[in-house]
Amino acid sequence: MIVFDYTSVVFAAGLIVGLTLDSLLLRTLLAPPFRIWPTPAPGSWQSLTFWGLFRGGMVLTFVVAVLDWNATPLLDWTRFIVGVPLGLGGLFITVCGYFNLGLGNTYCGSDGLVSHGLYRFSRNPQYTASIVGLIGLSIGANSILTIVLSCVMIGAYVLMSLVEEDWLKQHYGTSYREYCERTARFLDVQGLILAIVDRKKPSRQAG
């Protein structure tokens, strides 16, 4: 007889929600014109379905991390040295990305192509930061169940970035294609390092 505890039930729900989201995103990528993301319009079945699954998957991942905290002794306390900075840093950059991109564009609007700020170094800085945050959560939680759900949600972020590209090309055409050519999909590490180094150099005043 199989006995399910509360953590197992929440994990199973998160897995079903996350895999359903991944499946719909994969169909969007491979079988257009079906499209679950970016959503056609607020209040549409696509919008309600996508946001319900996405938010549900993220919430359930965090709930499992709390319920199953330190259940699998993969790492000792030193995991927090890596996990906490990744988790908090990912959250901070994600929030900054909302201000950089604008609320309208974040929620599938077409308020203009954004290529400044964080978007100089990544075409998807919010997704990249959220992936980093999920990795930090998995390290900190020390839980196999959290790692599994985090991987499922990371898969959703990757698929979201892929399915957005055709949609953005339709809206912004040549300007977006040129932006893609000069900007990494997830992170331009070299460009970011050079920008940090340049900022640290003392400014020279003309004599």
TrEMBL record:
Keyword Transmembrane among record annotations: yes
Pfam families given in the database record: PEMT
Keywords: Membrane, Transmembrane, Transmembrane helix
Cellular component GO terms, alphabetical: endomembrane system
Protein's membrane topology: Multi-pass membrane protein
Subcellular location: Endomembrane system
Domain of life according to the entry: Bacteria
Bilayer-crossing regions: 9-30, 50-68, 80-101, 127-160
Protein name in the entry: Heavy metal resistance protein CzcN
Lineage of origin: Bacteria, Pseudomonadati, Pseudomonadota, Alphaproteobacteria, Hyphomicrobiales
